[in-house]
From TrEMBL:
GO terms for molecular function: RNA polymerase II cis-regulatory region sequence-specific DNA binding. One of its GO terms (biological process) is transcription by RNA polymerase II. This is Uncharacterized protein. InterPro entries: CXorf65-like (IPR039471). It comes from Loxodonta africana.
Length: 155
């Protein structure tokens, strides 16, 4: 947040890179961070399914990137997984960067909510389909069975 600059080696895994950045900036281990470029385009490393991928796959050598804090909803609340903001750790970020970060955060949150609605709709369809299925049992074919003697019939 004091606008310090330092070089990073992108020939390592994203996990190692982000660990190094946290250590260099003395950021707590808890909480998500990410990088954005000069235009404010997030790299979305915090969503990466394979943090063992090399950072060079996503970053360009000799480019400038900024560290951003990913703000989520309050823990223990219904909105704890929501995306609240992407905040660059800069003293005076450019307004264009802030707007780009805000737009990306809003789009990511809209996508998250849409995914939740689709998952909930699938649950409703599955429940309704199992509850409302008519069951048809085959009628027994009595012509293939001999009649029972009357002494074995019970009334």
């Amino acid at each position: 947040s004091d606008n310090q600059e330092f070089l990073i080696n992108i020939n390592c895994s994203v996990r190692v890179l982000m660990h190094y950045i946290r250590k260099k900036l003395r950021l707590p281990k808890k909480g998500e961070i990410d990088l954005c470029d000069e235009m404010g385009t997030m790299k979305l490393f915090f969503l990466l399914k394979t943090p063992e991928d090399y950072a060079s796959k996503f970053l360009t050598a000799r480019s400038t990137y900024y560290v951003c804090k990913v703000e989520r909803g309050a823990p223990g609340t219904r909105i704890e997984d929501s995306y609240r903001a992407f905040v660059p750790l800069l003293k005076n970020p450019e307004p264009e960067m802030l707007e780009a970060l805000r737009t990306q955060c809003d789009l990511l949150e809209q996508s998250r909510l849409k995914t939740i609605r689709i998952q909930e709709a699938k649950k409703v369809v599955i429940i309704e389909s199992t509850v409302n299925l008519p069951v048809r049992l085959p009628k027994p074919d009595l012509s293939q069975h001999p009649p029972l003697p009357t002494s074995q019939l019970k009334a």
